[in-house]
Amino acid sequence: MYDDNSDCFDTLSKGAIKMKSGIHFITFAIIIGMFALNTVAASIVTDGLVSYWPFDRGYFTNKTIKDVWGDNNGTISGNPEVVPGQVGEALEFDGVNDFVNLTTLGDFGRSIGTSSFEAWIKTTNKRNWMTLINTHGAECPNWGIELNGSNDEFGIQIMDRTLHHYIGIGGQNSCGISRGTEAVDIFDGEWHHIVYTNDYMINKGGMSGNGKRIIYIDGVSGSTINHGFGGNSKRAFLPFTAPVHLGARKFPGQAHGHFMGMIDEVRFYDRPLTADEVLQNFESTEPYNVAPKGKLSTVWATLKTK
Questions:
Q1: How many CB atoms lie within 10 A of CB 205?
Q2: Using an 8 Å Cβ cutoff, are 13 and 20 in contact?
Q3: pLDDT tens per residue across span 192-244
Q4: Least packed by Cβ within 10 Å: which of 39, 238, 262, 296?
Q5: Angle at Cα 245 formed by Cα 242 and Cα 246, nearest 5°?
Q6: Do residues 225 and 267 both lie within one domain?
């Protein structure tokens, strides 16, 4: 008699445990469903994503613009306006004193040799030299994209309707800058998607290396530059010693070459995007909805302990 009751109790206990587990599973499924209904599925590439500034109005606090993926919140200089963008909203720069300080991006400078920069831009400025993105240390790194011209140690060279990109690899006495310039049809007042990828390798010992840079315009590769280097100076990619500036070049000290037009959906990756990934981001029309970090995992962890 005692054994029979014990078996019955065990059966009931096991049933209760199964029922409790079933309730947990159903609850979890409901939570997943709620997130699916209320969260826009990410259509952009997130593998290797370091920082992302969508420039939507909800991410501004006074002069601070939130990095929705990383920890590199930007600081606005001047008074750029929030306007309708290619995806959600964008910033409109006046070409006079507007730009955004994106900080030094932590240790990202060490990875700039294998990286991607991405943005949507809209401008009708076909003649005045202006900077899209730039950073410049005391010597290196020196990296960025300029439009309608080039600014180097010899002064400003105006080149109408061109895109000029460059990267400097740090050495003992020099920067070792590699440059490229091409004519581009992006000054028509329409939105255009720009991606700049770097794929460099510094050989063991740092005395030589090689790399490849690609500019994509509207999802299509515009130019590919293969660059080898060598010499007596040991090369390296170093953390940025000066902030990365969006919409102006700030070296030495004073900002100049201000961008005139609109900029949207700015992203950095710590690897070169592939052609298919560039096309995927180009075709993405939905803003990426970043869920509160840890929210879902915290709820599920609580359920599992009950």
A1: 9
A2: no
A3: 999 999 998 888 888 888 889 999 999 999 889 988 877 777 887 878 888 89
A4: 39
A5: 165
A6: yes
Residues 74, 207, single domain; the answer is yes
User: Could you write out the three-class secondary structure of the chain?
Assistant: CHHHHHHHHHHHHHHHHHHHHHHHHHHHHHHHHHHHHHCCCCCCCCCCEEEEECCCHHHEECCEECCCCCCCCEEEECCCEEEECCCCEEEEEECCCCEEECCCCCCHHHHCCEEEEEEEEECCCCCCCEEEEEEECCCCCEEEEEEEEEEECCEEEEEEEEEEEEEECECCCCCCEEEEEEECCCCCCCCEEEEEEEEEEECCCCCCEEEEEEEEECCEEEEEEEEEECCCCCCECCCCCCCCEECCEECCCCEECCCEEEEEEEEEECCCCCHHHHHHHHHCCCCCCCCCCCHHHHHHHHHHCC
22: domain range? 2-39+293-304
Count the domains in the chain. 2
- Indicate whether 88 belongs to any domain: yes
User: Same domain for 25 and 104?
Assistant: no
Q: Is the pLDDT of residue 4 over 60?
A: no
Indicate whether 44 belongs to any domain.
no
